[in-house]
Design brief:
disordered N terminus, globular, 17 helices, alpha/beta, 7-stranded mixed β-sheet, Aspartate Aminotransferase, domain 2
Length: 607
């Protein structure tokens, strides 16, 4: 027993030194406010650190939060392989404690393996246990709603969020659609990869913010438990399921810290969006275009570059697109002067509707725009009579300790000072599907002046349909009313904070990226990275296609607002989705490094 206690003590000391070294190295890479946010996340979410010593059973043999049972003494147990405890520089060898087989009551027997290959043996026909390097990462303390207590997130859960496999391979059933036209570039890239002999399941998909299997379990459970029978029928209101709308009308003012002087139901109101935020933006643009005062008064939209696909939404409605640049030298914070000049130029070119897009939790950089900057943008829009679209798709997704700038609050404060007749039209969209990993639900919140919501939903919606996804709205209402939804968001924020640190280390390590060649903001699920400089001379295929063909990793488009054109830096960008677990993210980086897709290039790329 003394020898076992000594080994356990050595394990704890080794694990503590490794964790401290790992976090110190990574925090020195990112530095600044990002490091402070991660420190806050670790302090808030870390719990007592478990010893890595002692025999560990397979995760499948015990549930989350269950204690590790001591195996019964038997001759088989005494003559099995000795327990091996980890020490610095050595692999961890795990053995499975014997468990009686169901139906026979017999204890399993130990089958020796070949240690030279890393297979230390197995119990009966179980899968062999290979070499395992002890992980030097802090355990996350996860709040739970039951009994008001919290528990530690296990190693398996940290890489399989919510207990679900998170390998980020693309389900083939979500891609195949026969010979009909498919407008999505990712589908074409996957088809090309398949034609070249790569299996779709082998692709690590880091393009769109999609997990396919990571929806909040409590939300999925609510869909089967909290949906009343009448929710399968029509809703006789264009503003969404009343239960969900009441929930949103209570949450939006609190979460966005709206000023008490702005009266709900008079200066603004809240409705449910049920076809995705893109759909809501499209019909808001359609509503504004209908207010045009003549055929030559073309509508115009002003948005950031890089940014999301606003040109795809408003260009289809005949909008002229004007862009203001975001410079990585200022951490992608807008220059209010650039925004004001772009608005004035757009106004000089048209007498029709003008629209400014404010995306304060910026996609794809993850930046959190400064409050003074957002306020100056809203004032510039007010001066030229421009409407405002507030895109809060990722408002709730931010690192612990970070307060997201509320563009909605700033807009109400600035527009509230104007007489009602002079206030430009505006709309704020907020995605609920993105924050709970259920993109297919397409549910969110719409906040705007009552007259805008009445025109948008009370007049335009009946022209093309009824309120849809009603059972999903009922489940979302029940989920938002549960403490589990807040616990889920708190855990998700901590996980993303740690993954940002994790990726900063690997980008500067395996891929050799300098610190100014990528940006990891405190908000949203993406990081933005430059394409390697040696690839700039290549024009035969996009870097995303090249990366997929070489490594099997599909990255995302980095500048959807400027298709076919480079940002102000003159160098292309790609974005990387941080949704999967750290193992998958590490595997993606390792694939890219092995394919020579480093900052300096390698043999596989001809560099």
């Amino acid at each position: 027993m003394a020898r076992l206690a000594s080994a356990s003590g050595r394990s704890r000391r080794w694990a503590s030194r490794s964790r401290a070294s790992h976090m110190s190295d990574v925090l020195s890479v990112i530095g600044g406010s990002a490091a402070e946010a991660v420190i806050s996340a670790s302090r808030a979410l870390s719990g007592p650190r478990r010893s890595l010593s002692g025999p560990r059973g397979p995760p499948s043999r015990r549930g989350v939060g269950q204690s590790r049972a001591r195996p019964a003494r038997s001759s088989t147990h005494r003559t099995g392989p000795p327990a091996v405890y980890p020490r610095a520089g050595s692999p961890t060898r795990r053995r499975v404690p014997p468990v009686r087989s169901e139906g026979t009551g017999r204890l399993p027997t130990w089958k020796a393996g070949n240690r030279s290959t890393g297979n230390y043996g197995r119990w009966n026909g179980a899968a062999p246990m290979g070499r395992q390097t002890p992980r030097a990462q802090p355990y996350l303390r996860v709040p739970t709603s039951r009994r008001g207590r919290s528990r530690l997130l296990t190693e398996q859960e940290r890489h399989r969020p919510n207990g679900r496999t998170h390998d980020m391979s693309v389900p083939e059933t979500m891609v195949g659609d026969g010979d009909l036209y498919n407008p999505y570039e990712d589908t074409e890239l996957l088809r090309e990869a398949t034609a070249a002999g790569r299996k779709v399941a082998d692709v690590i998909y880091l393009s769109l913010g999609e997990t396919w299997n990571g929806a909040a379990e409590g939300l999925v459970a609510a869909l089967g438990r909290d949906v009343p029978p009448h929710s399968h029928g029509y809703v006789l209101s264009p503003y969404g399921l009343p239960t969900l709308r009441r929930m949103l009308r209570s949450r939006i003012p609190a979460e966005h810290r709206l000023p008490p002087s702005a009266r709900l139901g008079e200066e603004y109101d809240v409705a449910v969006s049920h076809g995705g935020t893109r759909n809501a933006m499209f019909h808001f643009g359609r509503l504004m275009a209908q207010r045009s005062r003549g055929p030559i008064a073309r509508p115009a939209v002003v948005c950031s570059s890089p940014g999301w696909d606003y040109p795809g939404v408003f260009g289809a409605l005949g909008y002229d697109v004007h862009r203001f640049p975001l410079d990585p030298g200022t951490e992608y914070q807008p220059d209010p002067g650039d925004v004001a000049r772009t608005l004035k130029k757009a106004r000089a070119e048209t007498s029709g509707p003008l629209l400014l897009v404010v995306n304060a939790q910026h996609n794809p950089t993850g930046g959190n725009w400064a409050e003074d900057t957002v306020r100056a943008m809203v004032r510039a829009a007010r001066e030229v009579g421009s409407g405002v679209l507030v895109d809060d798709a990722y408002y709730a997704l931010h690192d612990p300790g970070v307060t997201p700038v509320s563009a909605l609050r700033i807009l109400l404060e600035e527009f509230g000072a104007l007489p009602a007749a002079r206030r430009p039209p505006w709309l704020a969209v907020r995605s609920l599907s993105k924050q709970f990993h259920c993109n297919g639900w397409g549910i969110g919140a719409l906040t705007g002046p009552p007259d805008v919501l009445e025109d948008l939903l009370g007049r335009l919606l009946p022209e093309y349909g009824f309120v849809s996804s009603v059972p999903l709205q009922a489940a979302m209402a029940a989920w938002l009313g549960s403490p589990e939804s807040d616990d889920y968001l708190a855990r998700q924020r901590g996980e993303y904070a740690l993954k940002r640190v994790h990726m900063a280390q690997h980008l500067t390590g395996e891929l050799g990226y300098p610190q100014d060649a990528f940006f990891i903001g405190p908000c949203g699920p993406y990081l933005l990275m430059r394409t390697p400089p040696w690839y700039g001379a290549r024009t035969d295929e996009p870097y995303r296609s090249f990366c997929l063909r070489r490594s099997g990793v599909l990255l995302g488009e980095g500048h959807m607002t400027t298709p076919g054109a480079l940002p102000v830096t003159g160098q292309d960008h790609v974005r990387l989705f941080l949704g999967p677990g750290t193992r998958t993210l590490t595997r993606a980086v390792q694939r890219m490094a092995a394919a020579g897709l480093t900052w300096q290039g390698g043999p596989a790329t001809g560099r």
